[in-house]
Write a structure and sequence with these properties.
There is one protein chain. This protein is α/β, with parallel strands linked by helices and about 475 residues long. It contains 14 helices and 18 strands. It has a single domain, classed as Glycosidases (TIM Barrel). Helices cover about 35% and strands about 15% of the residues. The strands form six sheets. An eight-stranded parallel beta barrel has the order 1-3-4-5-7-9-15-16, surrounded by five helices. Helix 6 packs parallel to helix 8 and helix 8 packs across helix 11. The longest helix is centred in the middle third of the chain and has 25 residues. Bound molecules: 6-O-phosphono-beta-D-galactopyranose (BGP).
């Protein structure tokens, strides 16, 4: 059974949804100079806006000018919660100003007021895969310790401004992306002097883990600030939970899968939930030739800034094993070996509803803090019928199977606070920059070539999800 106060809703991210990239004083952010791509062809980071390229974040779904209509649609589905992010460069155009951009703050005031009108609780990610471009170009993003101070100034500003409108916060989206090659640009913003594919491996593990360490410190200081000054706030962390099964019962592969889960999931959540680096970090750094610069103040900050709840995205699972074991598959940020028991989405992500129950139990067993699934869903092609309807039965099927497993997890005893499915209103894909990879219950008339009226249209899943919410998950 889901809690009475279960936070049903959907999730978005500013750079993939808002558009208005240079409106009302907003500065350019890193995604604003990332082109579109496809499953086969990577997005490019071009450093500046260059002629001849399409930049999907510039208009995206134009939430900036559609927020009233959009929030009304969410309310019609009965949303209790709306996960969204604040675009840092809307508030501080280069990330380094002293004074914030009032027009940027005013936009979020309006969004939160609109949510309040319908009793929808905002869940706000402070950093969802964007940072001011100037911080990336001049400071090399999170590799610089100085970025912590700029980030804290931004956090202090939005905490103070929205203290009466927002209760639930998330520090960094999918913080474990910082360990992966794709994270160098989208997550830790280490773009100084670079142009090229967004997944072009350039940084050493040393740099990657140091940048991630700076994010851990910033996250902990954010939690600390909330606890000291805004006791009404609840602050969570966020990772992409990669369920990794051993590809078979060869004990070596079982061990590899255990290591994988430690390195790719628990490494980050142990720091953020327990407040210190775990025992296996030492061996991991040794194997990767990483020597981190950690000050005694950092250790204190991490200890004092443990989160109130843990959140994660869950899309898929992978298999892990010795080299050459099986065919490989792609996935959300990272791939692995193919699982013969699972089918995959149109983009090759393996669909594994049982994995969400496994992930919830694993995380709850380890931490005993409330959990929330803040991203889940199916990226798929949608077709508009002649009468204008969109029969996305495949999406309903995906969500139904995952929600059923979440319910079983609650019956296992897991304390699950809520569920926000990804891209509730169609938005730009993170990994490919496509529009045709759609997740929403609401269709947005926008296409990969940048054309479209931006008109909103309800899909079949809109009515289905409304009924799920209305029955608090009893009717699935
Ligand atoms: C997560 C990100 C989101 C998002 C989602 C789906 O990793 O937090 O920003 O977009 O994955 O990925 P994609 O858009 O590539 O299908």
């Amino acid at each position: 059974m889901f809690r009475e106060d279960f936070l049903w809703g959907g999730a978005t991210a500013a750079n993939q949804f808002e558009g208005a990239w240079d409106v009302d004083g907003k500065g350019p952010s890193i995604p604003d100079v990332c082109t579109n791509g496809t499953r086969e062809r990577s997005k490019l980071f071009t450093g500046t806006v260059k002629p001849g390229y399409l930049y999907p974040s510039h208009e995206a779904s134009d939430f900036y000018h559609h927020y009233q209509e959009d929030i009304a649609l969410l309310a019609e589905m009965g949303y209790k919660c709306f996960r969204m992010s604040i675009n840092w460069s809307r508030i501080f155009p280069t990330g380094m100003e002293k004074e914030p951009n009032e027009k940027g703050l005013a936009f979020y005031d309006k969004v939160f007021d609109e949510c309040k009108k319908y009793g929808i609780e905002p869940l706000v990610t402070l950093s969802h895969y964007e940072m001011p471009l100037a911080l990336g170009m001049q400071k090399n993003g999170w590799l610089s310790r100085e970025t912590i101070e700029h980030f804290m100034h931004y956090v202090e500003t939005v905490f103070e401004r929205f203290k009466d409108k927002v209760k639930y916060w998330i520090t960094f989206n999918e913080i474990n992306a910082g360990q992966m090659p794709i994270g160098d640009i989208i997550s830790t913003g280490m773009v100084k002097g670079y142009e090229g594919p967004i997944d072009g491996i350039r940084h050493s593990e040393q740099e990657r883990y140091q940048a991630l360490h700076h994010q851990f410190v910033a996250s902990a200081r954010t939690v600390r600030l909330a606890h000291k000054k805004y006791p009404q706030f609840k602050v969570g962390n966020m990772l992409t939970f990669i369920v990794a099964y051993p590809v078979n019962c060869d004990p070596e592969n079982v061990l590899l899968a255990q290591r994988y889960m430690q390195n790719m999931n628990w490494y980050c959540s142990d720091v953020q939930v327990k407040g210190a680096y775990p025992y296996y970090a030492t061996a991991m750094w040794r194997d990767k030739n990483v020597i981190l610069n950690i000050t005694s103040k950092d250790i204190e900050d991490l200890q004092n800034g443990t989160v109130d709840f843990m959140t994660f995205s869950y899309y898929m699972s992978i298999c892990v094993g010795r080299e050459g074991e099986k065919d490989t598959v792609s996935g959300n940020l990272t791939g692995g070996f193919k699982n013969p028991y699972l089918e995959a989405s149109d983009w090759g992500w393996q669909i594994d509803p049982t994995g969400i129950r496994y992930a919830l139990n694993a995380a709850y067993d380890r931490y005993h803090v409330p959990l929330m699934i803040v991203e889940n869903g199916l990226g798929a092609f949608d077709t508009i019928e002649e009468d204008g309807s969109i029969h996305d039965t495949y999406r309903i099927d995906y969500m139904r199977r995952h929600i059923r497993q979440m319910k079983l997890a609650t019956e296992d005893g897991v304390d699950l606070m809520g569920y926000t499915n990804w891209g509730c209103i169609d938005l730009v894909s993170l990994t490919t920059g496509e529009m045709r990879k759609r997740y929403g219950q609401v269709f947005v008339d926008k296409y990969d070539d940048g054309t479209g009226t931006l008109e909103r249209r309800k899909k079949d899943s809109f009515y289905w999800y409304r009924d799920v919410i209305r029955s608090n998950g009893m009717e699935i």
